[in-house]
Amino acid sequence: MAYSPYSLLERALLSGNPDEKGALTDELFAAVQDTALDTASAAPALDFRMAGRPCKPELVAPSQVTPRKMNTVEGYAAMLHAICHIEFNAINLALDAAYRFRKLPEAFVKDWIGVAKEEVYHFRLMRERLRHFGFDYGDFEAHGHLWDMAYKTAFDPLLRMALVPRVLEARGLDVTPAIRAKVAQRGDTETCGVLDIIYRDEVGHVRIGNHWYQYLCRQRGLEPVVLFRRLIARYDMFIFRGYVNIEARERAGFSRFELEMLEDFEKSLKTMAG
Ligand SMILES: [Fe+2]
User: Fold this and answer.
1) How far is the CA of 139 from the centre of ligand 1 (A)?
2) 133: alpha, beta or left, given left = phi > 0 and alpha = psi -120 to 50?
3) 222: which of 24, 27, 47, 126 is 20 to 30 A away, CA to CA?
4) pLDDT for 161
């Protein structure tokens, strides 16, 4: 009989304990290997405002996250904490994609469960680094920006694929090399090793997002490049601000043609805005 992943997905997604969430995600990943999934007979997804998260970190507006200097241990730990928080949210985002969107091929569900498992791994590695410096996840405040985007795109997998993996997660490819350089300058080779793992895996996650974005566009007869341009303008998002890692984005499935179109388009928006 085909295996239905949804009750375990729901438990993992709603768990507010990071250790439990990680263990349930590992269990789920093992359960869906080499198994046909029953994705048809499930009850509709629950509609919740927040996925499970611990009561700390306290969530504040992005502008309210206290800036800290990298040259103190506390400031350095705050930076590691910010990465931990991104990884924690990434677990929820991947679980939510697998859980929420029904009537898609089972490969979609399996892909996002696979991503969730890697995000759990990243979270654990980064949390270890944070603990190494005497801090833990929850010790600093954080913002809810990533999950907010999941909530805004919960009604449509095409929108989710367009705006979460292709915009927010792809942004990680742009910023990770600079963070790694700062970490290397500090001589923290272990954290560099963790960042290398994260960077390598994130290319794969963005590629999965790209794959399903293209799939859903084809299925609906929509032109992916034009649609994406319209979506990022509509949702007030951007790709070209600061350094854009063209090489990693190409490996993650963006075409050079699309990136050049986007760059021109965003330039013209800026000009229009004066
Ligand atoms: Fe990650």
Assistant:
1) 20
2) alpha
3) 47
4) 97
Q: 141 CA distance to ligand 1 centroid (A)?
A: 19
The residue ranges of the chain whose pLDDT is under 70 are 273-274
Measuring CA to CA, which residue among 274, 239, 244, 218 is closest to residue 165?
239
d(CA 244, ligand 1 centre) in Å: 19
pLDDT in tens, 55-79: 999 999 888 887 778 889 999 999 9
Residue 61 CA to ligand 1 center (angstroms) comes to 22
Q: Tell me how far apart the alpha carbons of residues 273 and 268 are, in angstroms, rounded to a whole number.
A: 9
CATH fold of 54-273: Ferritin (1.20.1260)
Measure 46 CA to ligand 1 centroid, in angstroms: 25
Distance 274 CA to ligand 1 centre (A): 37
For residue 227, give both structure tokens. Answer: 């649609």
| Distance between start and end Cα atoms, the chain | 61
User: What is the structure's pLDDT at 274?
Assistant: 58
How many angstroms does the Cα of residue 34 sit away from the middle of ligand 1? 24
Predicted local distance difference test score (pLDDT) of residue 70: 82
Determine contact, residues 252/210, Cβ cutoff 8 Å: yes
- Reading the block at residue 271, the tokens are 């000009």
CA of 101 to the centre of ligand 1 (A): 21
3-state secondary structure of 37: strand
- For residues 26 and 117, the answer to whether their CB atoms sit within 8 Å is yes
**Other CB atoms within 10 A of residue 132 CB:** 13
The whole-angstrom distance between residue 82's C-alpha and the CA centroid of its chain comes to 13
Say what the pLDDT of residue 146 is: 84
The two tokens of residue 248 are 């990693």
